[in-house]
Every structure is written in C-alpha cells, then in structure tokens.
C-alpha cells in the first residue's frame, strides 16, 4: 500500500538486478494482498484454505504484507530524506497518511450503512464489529477520530498513524538508531498483550511488522552489501537456512491448524505464538519467514513471473486498489452466496481472485483510490 517503487530507487545497482529485486517484491506483495480476499471470506473447507491457513498460521499473509509495505516505505523515505531533506520527506509521508485517511473513513461509514440496512431487512450475515446504536453524529465522531472502523478495508486506518510517525522512525534510522526503532516497535506490540491500549491496539499490533520492514528497507543496500561480503558458502548457508526455517514455520502452522488439539492444551504455545495473533514471539518469526520467502521466490522468480505472475504481479503493483476492491467483494458476497462444499468454496475463492484481476484491468474504482 505504498507508492510504486521504481527499480533504481529500490536497488541502486546494475539494471538487471534492479528489475529482479522489484519483481520479487511485487510477487510477494501480490500474493499477500491477492489471498486476503479469500482469507477474509473464510469459506472453508476449500483448496486454497488448505494452503493459506486462513490467517491462522504462525506468520500470516497480513503480517507479511505489513512488512513489505514497511520495507518499501523505508526505501522511499530514505531516498526522500537524502535527496530533499527532512521537511520534504515528512510532508510526503503525511500526504500519504492523508490520502489513506480520506479513503478509510468514508469506507467505514459506507460499510456501516450497508450492514445496518441489511440487518433491517433481515439479513444477519454482516461482519462482526458493527456499531449498531450510535447516532449519526456519534458515528461520525468515532469514525473521524479512528476510534471506530468497520468493513474489510480496516487496515487502512492502521496505516494512517504508521505513515504519520514514519518520518520520526526514518530520522532515527538515519541516526543509526535502528536498535531503538526495533525495541520501541516490539515494546508497543508487547504492551497490547498486557495492557488495554484501546483504539491504539491494532496500530501497535501491526505496527511492529511495518517498522521492522521499514528498518530493513532503510538499510536495504547495507544488507545486500553485507551478504555480498560473505564467502559463497556462508552466503548459501544463510539463504538456505532462512528458506528451511520458513518451511518449518509454515509446516508447524499447518499442523496446528488441522490438528489444534495437539496444541490447545499447551499454554506456552498459546502465549508465544497464538493468543489471537498476539503471541509474544510472532514478531520474531515474521522477519525470518518473509526473508526466507524472498530468497525462495528469487530462486524461482522467472517461472513464477511467466505463469502465476501474470495475475500476482499486477496485484502487487496495485495493492491499495486491490485491497479496497476486495473489501467490497468480501463484504457483499455472504449476502448472496453462503459457504458450501469443498469444491464450491474453492470456486468461490477462485472467483474472488478472478474478480480482483478484472478490477485491476478495468480499474472502475481508480477515481476513488490513490495509486499504490
């Protein structure tokens, strides 16, 4: 959900490598946002549901998406800082926060109106979290202050404060204070598991992934150079180790998803990894998983780009548009098509992804949504 990254801004090296890195990130971001619709629809059992975990894995697609968003913000805002200075960098980030705000608040009001209308007509398949009782002025006040958000585009309201504080984070990174950034990000996350942080909770919960990504994005070239200085065998060991760790994390998540009774009696597992996606070790697993996924996709990028990339890459390059478009599809589908059998649910999942692909090609909501 960030401004499209140009190759030279992303890498700053020889042309072929620039393009390779950019396509890899587009593939990752495209997959993350592409399956969000099916995950939110949650029509299981289904074929895709066997793979994506419906947001219940040790590292979810949403966590990966926030990390990639932060990664690109770290790259872009560093470029702004070095080329134009602190003020211009800050204004660019705040402009982005404003763009997301003016999309997020009306969407909350629109989805609230739709849900209340459907309930009034006897339909009960509305998304949870609806404000049933506030009058118009109370609803407006809570929506405008981000105390209330509703619908399947709620991540936008979490991004607004992230983009607002991003200049301070980038400034700290420019002062070589990345350890402080990581500690603050994790401390905010940890607090959500121990303190009632009110409406700040989702910002702190998802912000840890965003700011870990921002730190990595700011130091992208430094990390590449560090990898380049390693001996070939050590470089291979790091890459293969991260890919193997990613596979282990995924397998454990899948086992826990389909054999929950193996884990439900283990309070340590719940506190560390589950706890409604607030397990205290989850932010430590996400960078490993995203890094391992990155190296894996780098290795098979060419065949991916020629095949599923035809769908996924446009998703990655239009992630904000896809995210907002899928929010309408996922919100409205249950009113007309309830979940069914395995193969019918699979068709629903594929139909939603196909609808998103058509939406990207037609861009019927482009006049409402800022570019991403």
From TrEMBL:
Pfam family, one: OpgC_C
Keywords, alphabetical: Membrane, Transmembrane, Transmembrane helix
Membrane spanning stretches: 31-51, 57-76, 97-115, 155-173, 180-197, 203-220, 241-258, 278-297, 318-336, 342-360
Name of the protein in its database record: OpgC domain-containing protein
């Amino acid at each position: 959900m960030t401004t499209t990254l140009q190759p030279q801004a992303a890498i700053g090296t020889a042309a072929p490598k620039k393009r390779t890195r950019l396509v890899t990130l587009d593939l990752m971001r495209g997959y993350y946002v592409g399956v969000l619709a099916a995950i939110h629809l949650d029509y299981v059992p289904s074929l895709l549901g066997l793979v994506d975990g419906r947001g219940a894995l040790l590292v979810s697609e949403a966590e990966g998406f926030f990390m990639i968003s932060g990664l690109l913000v770290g790259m872009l805002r560093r470029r702004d800082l070095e080329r134009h200075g602190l003020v211009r960098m800050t204004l660019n980030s705040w402009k982005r926060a404003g763009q997301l705000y003016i999309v997020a608040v009306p969407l909350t009001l629109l989805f609230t109106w739709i849900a209340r209308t459907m309930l009034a007509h006897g339909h009960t398949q509305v998304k949870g979290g609806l404000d049933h009782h506030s009058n118009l002025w109370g609803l407006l006040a809570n929506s405008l202050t981000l105390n209330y958000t509703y619908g399947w585009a709620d991540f936008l309201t979490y991004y607004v404060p992230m983009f607002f504080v991003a200049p301070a984070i980038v400034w700290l990174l420019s002062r070589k204070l990345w350890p402080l950034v990581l500690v603050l990000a994790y401390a905010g996350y940890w607090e959500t598991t121990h303190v009632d942080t009110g409406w700040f909770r989702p910002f702190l919960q998802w912000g840890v992934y965003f700011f870990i990504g921002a730190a990595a994005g700011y130091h992208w070239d430094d990390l590449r150079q560090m990898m380049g200085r390693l001996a070939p065998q050590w470089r291979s060991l790091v890459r293969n180790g991260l890919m193997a760790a990613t596979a282990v994390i995924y397998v454990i998540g899948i086992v826990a998803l389909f054999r929950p009774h193996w884990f439900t009696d283990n309070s340590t597992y719940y506190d560390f990894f589950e706890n409604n996606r607030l397990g205290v070790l989850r932010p430590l697993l996400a960078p490993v998983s995203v890094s391992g996924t990155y190296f894996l996709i780098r290795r098979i990028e060419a065949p991916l780009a020629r095949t599923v990339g035809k769908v996924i890459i446009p998703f990655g390059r239009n992630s904000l548009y896809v995210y907002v478009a899928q929010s309408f599809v996922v919100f409205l589908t249950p009113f007309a098509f309830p979940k069914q059998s395995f193969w019918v649910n699979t068709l629903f999942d594929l139909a939603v992804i196909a609808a998103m692909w058509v939406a990207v090609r037609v861009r019927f909501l482009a006049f409402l949504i800022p570019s991403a």
